[in-house]
Write a structure and sequence with these properties.
The chain has three helices and no strands. By secondary structure, the chain is mainly α. It has one domain.
């Protein structure tokens, strides 16, 4: 992982936190409207497998 190898990369770490926060907020919205399963949960490791 890039952030594991580059601990001082604060900019990308901050951006990743912002994107993950947006994902969690969106998931909360879609769960409340019934567009997303209630048991769905964001996991960074599983997402990495889906993207690769």
């Amino acid at each position: 992982d890039h952030l594991d190898n580059n601990r001082k990369d604060l900019h990308n770490n901050r951006q990743l936190n912002l994107v993950e926060s947006k994902i969690r907020r969106s998931a909360r919205y879609f769960k409340s409207n019934g567009k997303l399963d209630a048991d769905w949960n964001y996991k960074r490791d599983q997402l990495r497998l889906m993207v690769e």
